[in-house]
Each structure stands twice: as C-alpha cells, then as structure tokens.
C-alpha cells in the first residue's frame, strides 16, 4: 500500500486537507462532531507546547559518537571510558542560559553543554557549561541568581539594577563575571567553544579507590569569539545564528569534535591544596594539574524531529554509571535533585522512557512503576524489590561507585569540615579573577573590551550608589550611616575599578 494519511491510531483517512461537512444542497454545510480528524487536529494543536526550561531554554542539538582514544583503566572502571577504540552513541544539547526559547543565541551569556552517553551500563549524563567556573558556590543562591538575570517582575524587561544588585551582594561571582564580560561571553560558534564540568567529580575503580577530577571538552575546531559590536550586529539580523551554524555544518559533513580530557587530583592532595576543590568559583590551574586525554566526541547527525529529539531530551548530573561518582560539591549535590525534578514537571514522571532518553540497556527498575505515559512493559515479578521469583540480583558493591566503608575515613571527615561553611567571601576569591585579568592583558585590547562590556551594562543602573558598589569602593549606607567596603572589580585590580568607573560614568544618561 502506498503512503497515506492516518489518524494517530493508524486508521487511514481519505482527505487530510478538509473537514467533513453535511451539505445542504446549496453549497453550504455544517461541520460534524463525528469528524474525528478535525477534533483531534484542533485538540492536539492546543497542546503542542510543554513548559520550556526555566534556564537553558534555547538550544541546538545533535547526535554523535564518543570514541575511547587512550587507556584509562588506571583511573576508572567506567565501561564506556575503557578499551581503546570503543564507541558509544551520544546525544548533545548546547544552550544559552538566561534567555527564553525565542531569544537571540548570540547575546552575552553562559552556554550549557549537555551530553548523554548511551552506554552498556546505562546512561551517563554530563551537564556542563562553556566556562570553567560559576557565579556561586552555595545552591541556596541559585534561584535568586537566575531571577536577577531575567525579566523584572513589574516591567517584564531585562533589568541591570537587579543584575548588579545581586552580584555586588555575592562578590564571589567576580571570576565568572570577568569571564562572561570578556570576549569569551559571546562565542562565534557552538563548534568553536570548550565545555567544562566546573564541578569536581570522582573517577572510581572496582576496589573502591578514587581520584578527584575536573572534566574538559576541548574543541578540535579551536575557540572563536565575537566582540560586543559583532555580537549585537548578528543578533539584529539573525537571532538563530549559532543554531543555524551548527545545523548547517553537520549537514555539509563538517562534523565538529571535542577531546574529552580530565585534570586528576589525589584525595590526599585535596586536603592541603590552596583552594577548596569543592568550590565551583575556582579552577585548578593546568600548571598544577595538567590535562589528560580520555577520548573524542564527534557530532555527525542532526535531529530528524527537533521537539522529539532535543526539546524532550532530559539531562541530569545524577545520571551516572559505575566508575563515575559525585564529590561533596554542594552545587553538584543540589543539581542532582533539581535537574530530574525539573524534567518530572516538564515531561512527566516517566520522562526516562521517552525514546530520546531511553537507555539502550535492559531496564529492570522495580523502584519506579506505572504513572502517566508508562512504556516499559515489566512483568509482574518486577513489582517490588526482593521478590523470591524475580530473576534480578543486586549489583556487586564493587560496581565502581566505591565500596561502602564500614567507618568514616579521615578524608571523609575532612570533606565534611570543608563543605560545612562555603558562603564567606575572602581574599582568595579574587586571586583567580586577578590572574584572568592579567591573562587578558596579553591579548591586544581585550582588557579594554572587558571594561567596555561591563560599562555598557552598568550604565543602565540609575542608582549611583549601586554603580559604586560595582566599581569596588567605600560606600556610605544612608540608612545605617556607616561605610562599607564593597569588594568587586576594584578589589581585583585598582586600575580596573578606576577605569571602569571612568568609562561608565561618561555613558550614564
């Protein structure tokens, strides 16, 4: 039978271009409630949209393959990272963070980089960004951070006062702010940017030993950025520029690729390292912990249906295979709850069963059953844990997450002490931002461009006291009648703070 139109249940339909009408003999007619196609068409159209992501709403996506290029057996038992030449199917979604789904993708923003590996041990998700650090290290601040970057609840407009009021009250964000307002904040291509875990993870072995690591995806195409003028020009002519660039490159057969690398730290070294390794606002300098390559990711297939493949794709840092484990990083721990909870809201309680998310392995999960849109057809023996007639057994304790210790180790005691107090801002919070400022000084005009980018945003703040807080100087609190040192850009470098003030105040209207 040749291809033909059907209803959703598969029943053929004679004419998909018109509704059924009862003719009156004079050319007129009445629509009939029995017109199943019309009713289904209209009813489904009203339900085509699902809630978009609160953050990371706009994205490009593609499928590809990860290939192991190095022997990694000395650091992890993760199956997909072992065996030189081993290949694993992948799904990647690269997104902006702050804007809505219809916003421009070339505006200054952090970009998310999410990867799902369909491994032989189940799915492995990485949910990374294109910057090695983040604005905050305390998850309690996460909702406020994102609200301050979005639209004002009264005006429904982007609001510079909200933005800078939050960040001057959370000066640990200075390192990320300097990355964001450098040229790195406006990538010229999704194919030409790196991606970083930011978080500290563990790579584990079957004997329970582990190493702390930070993951890096290094673009094989190099890194390319727009300056502010270029970004704004393209934003006005093509708000979908980065999505189009990625899609068309893959269609041409110019498949982008990234090297997956790690920095490795021994747990004992972490106890004496100069920075808290669970602090997401800090990097590990490569001079201390050099990169080691694990494999290569290549994207080679565009989605056939964007909504089904990419919009419904769900990623979570909590999705880990044996051989990879979380650290005590408070931000990572919070994201491990927040991400799957967001998908349960957006897609439904069984979002893992959608084709784009479904594991390629046999899933035998008595912990979750029934609910809306259940697709797995478990037999009755999987109804509960511990059934005497069930063929399933529990995995070995040496499955790679680390054996369960009978007592708390000295290292675990140290971890508990380190992460118990993460909010105070200290001098070390400015050290890496200061180092970045010096690095930008090696590139012609980059320091000036950063100052111009920040000034362009700060000039929109009408309150002069708040602008001074951004520059970084003593500010007199009118209500408290006292001076307070607000430590932002001027604390990184006195000349930076002074120059930022000069440029901004000339622009203030």
UniProtKB/TrEMBL annotation:
Task of the protein: Catalyzes the degradation of hydrogen peroxide (H(2)O(2)) generated by peroxisomal oxidases to water and oxygen, thereby protecting cells from the toxic effects of hydrogen peroxide.
Pathway: Alkaloid biosynthesis
Entry's family note: Belongs to the catalase family.
Record: residues binding heme: 339
InterPro entries per record: Catalase (IPR018028), Catalase_AS (IPR024708), Catalase_clade1/3 (IPR024711), Catalase_core (IPR011614), Catalase_haem_BS (IPR002226), Catalase_sf (IPR020835)
Active site per database record: 56, 129
Gene Ontology cellular component annotations, sorted alphabetically: mitochondrion; peroxisome
Name of this chain's protein: Catalase core domain-containing protein
CDD domains cross-referenced by the UniProt entry: catalase_fungal (cd08157)
Pfam family, one: Catalase
Record PROSITE patterns: CATALASE_1 (PS00437), CATALASE_2 (PS00438), CATALASE_3 (PS51402)
Domain of life of the source: Eukaryota
MF annotations from Gene Ontology: catalase activity; heme binding; metal ion binding
Record keywords: Alkaloid metabolism, Heme, Hydrogen peroxide, Iron, Metal-binding, Oxidoreductase, Peroxidase
Gene3D superfamilies listed in its UniProt record: Catalase core domain
The protein's required cofactors: heme
Positions of the Catalase core domain: 6-393
Iron found in the keyword field: yes
């Amino acid at each position: 039978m040749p291809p033909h139109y059907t209803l959703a249940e598969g029943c053929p339909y004679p004419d998909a271009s018109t509704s059924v009408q009862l003719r009156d003999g004079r050319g007129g007619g009445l629509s009939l409630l029995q017109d199943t196609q019309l009713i289904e068409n209209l009813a489904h159209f009203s339900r085509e949209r699902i809630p978009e992501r609160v953050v990371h709403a706009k994205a490009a996506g593609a499928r590809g393959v990860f290939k192991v290029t190095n022997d990694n057996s000395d650091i992890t038992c993760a199956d997909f990272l072992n065996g030189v030449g081993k290949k694993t199917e992948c799904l990647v979604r690269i997104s902006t963070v702050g804007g809505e789904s219809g916003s421009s993708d070339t505006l200054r923003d952090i970009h998310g980089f999410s990867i799902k590996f369909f491994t032989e041990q189940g799915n492995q998700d990485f949910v990374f960004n294109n910057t090695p650090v983040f604005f905050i290290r305390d998850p309690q601040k996460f909702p406020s951070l994102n609200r301050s970057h979005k639209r004002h609840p009264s005006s429904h407009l982007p609001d510079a006062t909200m933005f800078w009021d939050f960040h001057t009250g959370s000066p640990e964000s200075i390192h990320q702010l300097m990355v964001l307002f450098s040229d790195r904040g406006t990538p010229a291509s999704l194919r030409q940017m790196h991606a970083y875990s930011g978080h500290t993870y563990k790579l584990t072995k079957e004997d329970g030993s582990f190493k702390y690591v930070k993951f890096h995806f290094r673009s094989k195409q190099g890194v390319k950025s727009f300056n502010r003028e270029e970004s704004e020009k393209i934003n006005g002519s093509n708000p979908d520029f980065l999505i189009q660039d990625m899609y068309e490159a893959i269609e041409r057969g110019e498949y982008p690729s990234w090297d997956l690398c790690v920095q490795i730290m021994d747990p004992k070294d972490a106890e004496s390292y100069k920075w808290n390794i669970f602090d997401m606002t800090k990097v590990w300098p490569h001079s201390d912990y050099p990169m080691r390559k694990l494999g290569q990711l290549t994207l080679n297939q565009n989605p056939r249906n964007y909504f089904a493949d990419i919009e419904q794709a769900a990623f979570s840092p909590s999705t880990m295979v044996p051989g990879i484990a979380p650290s005590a990083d408070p931000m990572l721990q919070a994201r491990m709850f927040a991400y799957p909870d967001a998908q349960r809201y957006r897609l439904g309680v069984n979002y893992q069963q959608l084709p784009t998310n479904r594991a390629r392995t046999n899933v035998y999960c008595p912990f979750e059953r029934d609910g809306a849109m259940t697709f797995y057809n478990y037999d009755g023996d999987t109804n509960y844990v511990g059934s005497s007639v069930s063929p399933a057994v529990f995995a070995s304790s040496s499955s790679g997450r680390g054996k369960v210790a009978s007592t708390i180790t000295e290292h675990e005691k140290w971890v508990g002490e380190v992460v118990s107090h993460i909010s105070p801002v200290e001098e070390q919070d400015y050290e890496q931002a200061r180092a970045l400022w010096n690095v930008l000084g090696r590139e012609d005009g980059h320091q000036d461009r950063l100052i111009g980018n920040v000034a362009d945003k700060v000039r929109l703040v009408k309150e002069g006291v708040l602008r001074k807080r951004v520059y970084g100087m003593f500010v007199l609190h009118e209500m408290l009648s006292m001076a307070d040192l607000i430590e932002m850009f001027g604390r990184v470098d006195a000349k930076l703070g002074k120059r930022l003030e000069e440029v901004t105040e000339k622009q203030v209207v």
